[in-house]
Backbone:
């Protein structure tokens, strides 16, 4: 009986410590805007915002803009700095889109690698 009480107490203390520790991770918000320009050109822009200054490594992937007979994308990767409370864009791409078409773009955000300044 005493062993069960002790085990329950240890579990309760562990939970209390894990949930009371302050979280220092920045909160990122991201969205993509599609806009239509002249000559049926669709421009895609990825916007990001953060509640803290944050440096990160990003990768852009996906098939991009595609319609029958044509596919195009501008995949890439790089480092980027977001400043707290500001919105910025690390990537945009434009291409003609003739309906019916598909848009397939993704962004991966990773912690800045140690070997990058």
Residues:
């Amino acid at each position: 009986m005493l062993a069960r009480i002790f085990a329950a107490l240890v579990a309760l203390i562990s939970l209390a410590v894990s949930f009371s520790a302050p979280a220092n991770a920045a909160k990122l918000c991201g969205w993509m805007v599609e806009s239509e320009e002249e000559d049926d050109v669709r421009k895609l822009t990825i916007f990001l915002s953060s509640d803290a200054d944050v440096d990160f490594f990003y990768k852009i992937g996906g098939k991009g803009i595609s319609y029958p007979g044509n596919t195009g994308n501008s995949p890439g990767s790089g480092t980027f700095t977001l400043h707290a409370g500001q919105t910025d864009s690390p990537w945009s791409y434009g291409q003609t889109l003739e309906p019916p078409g598909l848009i397939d773009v993704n962004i991966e955000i990773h912690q800045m690698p140690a070997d990058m300044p």
